[in-house]
Design brief:
The structure holds 2 protein chains of 2 kinds. Helices cover about 75% and strands about 0% of the residues of chain A. By secondary structure, chain A is mostly helical. Chain A has a two-stranded antiparallel ribbon with strand order 1-2. A 6-stranded parallel beta sheet of chain B has the order 4-3-5-6-7-14, sandwiched between helices. The longest helix of chain B is centred in the N-terminal third of the chain and has 22 residues, at about 1-25. The chains are: A mainly alpha, B alpha/beta.
Chain lengths: ~325, ~350
């Protein structure tokens, strides 16, 4: 009796997951068709490549954000980690290819340490992640302003620029990085014991704890992963931009949360997928591009962003009600 | 009867308040043209406490402005205390910052407001308390200040546009990249440019977008423009901040770089030198901060000051480029600067 129940329960979860995932895919396809009606320019390979490239940095951050949200947390420090990473990369690499690898590792270390800071305070002090990660964001902002005295300096060396804006047979390198990371994390989350624990902690923390999962360690690890992904995103954006900018990726923390939500992951944790986030990121970037192609002011993007988020939340809560 | 009496009294009170507000003279002028302000009422013996409320240091231009102000304050021993607040581009926070400075008992307020009308109550309050106000960089829309130091943004936009028209032989397609929507600098520069472009029927402005003075947004917007418009003959950018991003976008698309306008930012100058495109740099001088402090000292010394000070701008052309570009210095430096070596934002 017990094994049969388990299979049925799993199948139900899978069906709902798939439906939510396909739902957003249908929206993306519809959007791509509308794009053609607004401006056929959209379909040009150069434009598509541009759109994908612009989506990459946000995409990398959103992967990390997905992991945190799946475990029931949230990370508002990602944009600040990204900007700090970008600033230090430009300043310390100073245009030299030889410095790319050591300084990249240093930037990833910054992300790693920020993740530990977030994780420690959230788990050991049981503080709300919203506030804790906001605090970390401010600390990092202070650090990069003190270091640069407000005027970032340095340039990104050619090797890293390839990562941000290079092409392999017309396919942007940054997109390859983004999608490969997404595939890796998706497989890892769905197939490994660690992944299952992340879902379990997000779904029901108490039950997870009672079944022997080290909830604090899982929670902490998600913040560490998010921090690392944020710094990776910073390196990709640094490659795209070519120099340090104290406000690179401004607003990305909310954009990444929006992408995750639009992709079907529940904000309270426990259900969702990286695949959904990828589609969420693509959806948002396509819409931004369309706003510009349609000749609307760039600020109209904000209205559109808000509408998408509201629409997605309404869509998913309707689905939820059916159960 | 009592009700009508009360209404009458209230009406009278409102009228008298309105009357004082309408007829209030915030400053006394020495001439009938209202060009020179009489500052004898603000005289205070040194040493002084001066406060500077900065909109933000969110881009390197603003960092240089603040550095100039700090430098100038440091070379005047009569300024005993100099306080600086940073409002992070938030008008509400700036209102609070001004309150803080007034509470510290400052003798004069220098302010670079985040937005035009939101800071009116703050400067009016300061003037009411007898604390003279010197406005620098961006404007307020009230008359409650002693002097405004700036550099005509309208002229800046106009000079850039005139150069563009001349370079294109009075015909061609242009895109316009502006700063933050609603900021007086962006709007005035755009107005200066459009007044020029509208005079030439063969000059077509394809599109104008606000790029928040961000290189990332400038690059993204330009990349989209390149897709939308097959032929762009010129890029009018009100600042090298988004302009440098736009240049990169053109370069990456593999297209030749059309004439691009910019300012005295080192990154733009370096790109200009290295890529050899047609460029012009018009500065919005960061050293207007120094003038602000100098005029502040004049006000507190009872010396008359002009109501509006227009700090002269620098125009860099291909001929004079080599004098200003510094390949070994950071991209973020603004070259129309009067800062001595040790005051430059250093590594």
């Amino acid at each position: 009796m017990a094994p049969m129940l388990k299979t049925t329960a799993l199948r139900n979860v899978d069906t709902r997951d798939i439906f939510t995932r396909y739902g957003i895919l249908i929206v993306l396809v519809a959007l791509l068709i509308i794009a053609g009606l607004i401006s056929p320019v959209f379909y040009r390979s150069a434009n598509i490549a541009n759109v994908l490239q612009q989506a990459s940095a946000l995409g990398v951050i959103s992967i990390g954000q997905t992991i945190v949200i799946l475990a029931g947390g949230i990370d508002l420090s990602v944009a600040s980690i990204l900007a700090t990473s970008c600033v230090f990369a430009a300043a310390m690499m100073a245009g030299k290819n030889s410095m790319v690898i050591p300084i990249s590792l240093f930037c990833i270390l910054i992300g790693f340490l920020s993740g530990i800071l977030n994780g420690l305070i959230v788990t050991k002090r049981n503080a709300p992640p919203f506030i804790v990660t906001l605090g970390t964001a401010l600390i990092l902002q202070g650090i990069r302003f003190v270091y640069t005295k407000g005027a970032p300096f340095g340039t990104i060396p050619p090797w890293l620029r390839v990562m941000g804006r290079g092409r392999i047979a017309f396919f942007p390198v940054s997109v390859i990085i983004f999608l490969s990371l997404a595939v890796l994390v998706a497989i890892f989350l769905k197939r490994s014991p660690y992944g299952r624990k992340v879902y379990a902690v997000g779904d029901n923390k108490r039950a997870a704890y009672l079944s022997g999962i080290n909830v604090n360690w899982i929670s902490m690890s998600t913040y560490i992963l998010s921090g690392v992904f944020a710094s990776l995103g910073g390196l990709v954006l640094a490659g795209y931009l070519g120099f340090g900018d104290n406000w690179a990726g401004k607003g990305f923390e909310l954009d990444s949360i929006a992408a995750v939500v639009v992709g079907g992951t529940s904000l309270v944790g426990g259900s969702g997928s990286v695949a959904g986030t990828v589609i969420g990121v693509l959806l948002m970037t396509v819409v931004f591009n369309l706003v510009l192609l349609a000749g609307l002011p760039y600020q109209a993007q904000l209205i559109v962003k808000g509408l998408i988020i509201a629409g997605a939340v309404a869509f998913y809560s309707t689905l939820g009600k059916r159960d | 009867m009592k009700k009508y009496a009360l209404l009458f009294l209230v009406g009278l009170m409102i009228c008298s308040f309105a009357a004082t507000a309408l007829t209030k003279d915030w400053v006394k002028f020495m001439d009938s043209d209202k060009m020179l302000v009489d500052t004898t009422q603000f005289y205070k013996p040194a040493p002084w406490k001066i406060g500077f409320s900065n909109a933000s240091i969110s881009n390197s231009w603003r960092v240089f402005l603040q550095a100039h102000i700090q430098y100038e304050a440091s070379i005047h021993p009569e300024i005993a205390e100099f306080y600086i607040t940073d409002a992070q581009d938030n008008s509400t926070k700036q209102l609070a910052d001004v309150e803080d400075l007034l509470a510290k008992g400052i003798d004069l307020l220098i302010i670079a407001p985040a937005t035009e009308s939101a800071l009116n109550p703050a400067v009016e309050k300061a003037m009411d308390k007898g604390v003279p106000v010197v406005v620098v960089d961006r404007k307020v829309s009230t008359d409650a200040f002693v002097t405004y130091i700036g550099s005509s943004d309208y002229q800046m936009g106009k000079i850039m546009a005139e150069w563009m028209v001349e370079k294109l032989g009075k015909k061609g397609n242009i895109v316009c990249l502006s700063g933050i929507a609603g900021a007086s600098c962006a709007e005035d520069r755009l107005k200066g440019a459009m007044d020029v472009f509208n005079q030439y029927p063969d000059i077509k402005v394809l599109e104008q977008q606000y790029c928040d003075w961000s290189p990332v947004v400038g690059k993204q917007v330009m990349a989209t423009f390149i897709q939308k418009y097959p032929k762009i003959d010129g890029i009018w950018a009100d600042s090298a901040l988004q302009g440098s991003g736009a240049i990169e976008a053109v370069q990456e698309a593999g297209l030749p770089i059309p004439p691009v306008t910019g300012e005295d930012m080192n990154r733009y100058l370096k790109m200009w030198k290295q890529m050899g495109f047609e460029g012009v740099a018009v500065s919005f001088p960061t050293w207007q901060g120094q003038v602000a402090v100098q005029k502040a000292i004049d006000v507190l010394s009872g010396i008359p000051v002009p109501r509006n000070v227009d700090v002269p701008r620098l125009v860099i052309t291909t001929d004079t480029l080599d004098k200003f570009v510094k390949m070994d210095q950071p991209d973020e430096y603004f070259m129309d600067s009067r800062l001595p070596e040790k005051w430059l934002p250093k590594r």
